[in-house]
Amino acid sequence: MMSILKSLAIISVLGIFFIPRYSESAISCSVVIQDLQPCVSYLTSGSGKPPDTCCKGVKSLAAATTTSADKKAACQCIKSVANSVTVKTELAQALASNCGASLPVDASPTVDCTTVG
């Protein structure tokens, strides 16, 4: 009986060390900016379809924003940057779809980040 309890205790202790640690750490703003930086000139003075480099960044960002925390962090970052740069609203709202991607938010200063996630 004692050896069974001892074995269970050892298994429990070992289990603590081998249980995967899941944390919902959010994407950094620097990653968001890096991905969307190729889109800045298009969003401020472009027209038509976004350049391939921009779409590559949009798709990269879409792939990186999988958790609710990622989506909220990306939204706050995009909103902050969009407030400091004058973007064409129609281009910002259509950016993801024009790139064949799905982002949690538009690249717009008016996006409501409380609804994202």
UniProtKB/TrEMBL annotation:
Task: Tell me where the signal peptide lies.
Answer: 1-25
Q: Which organism is it from?
A: Camelina sativa
Pfam families referenced in this protein's UniProt entry, alphabetically: Tryp_alpha_amyl (PF00234)
UniProtKB keywords: Lipid-binding, Signal, Transport
Belongs to which family?
Answer: Belongs to the plant LTP family.
Protein's name in the database = Non-specific lipid-transfer protein
Q: Which InterPro entries match?
A: Bifun_inhib/LTP/seed_sf (IPR036312), Bifunc_inhib/LTP/seed_store (IPR016140), Plant_nsLTP (IPR000528)
The protein's matches in SUPFAM superfamilies, at most eight in alphabetical order, are given as:
Bifunctional inhibitor/lipid-transfer protein/seed storage 2S albumin
Q: Which PANTHER family match?
A: NON-SPECIFIC LIPID-TRANSFER PROTEIN 2-RELATED
Ranges for domain Bifunctional inhibitor/plant lipid transfer protein/seed storage helical: 29-113
The UniProt entry, under Gene3D superfamilies, shows: Plant lipid-transfer and hydrophobic proteins
Q: Which domain of life is it from?
A: Eukaryota
Q: Which gene encodes it?
A: LOC104747671
CDD domains annotated for this entry?
nsLTP1 (cd01960)
Q: What does this protein do?
A: Plant non-specific lipid-transfer proteins transfer phospholipids as well as galactolipids across membranes. May play a role in wax or cutin deposition in the cell walls of expanding epidermal cells and certain secretory tissues.
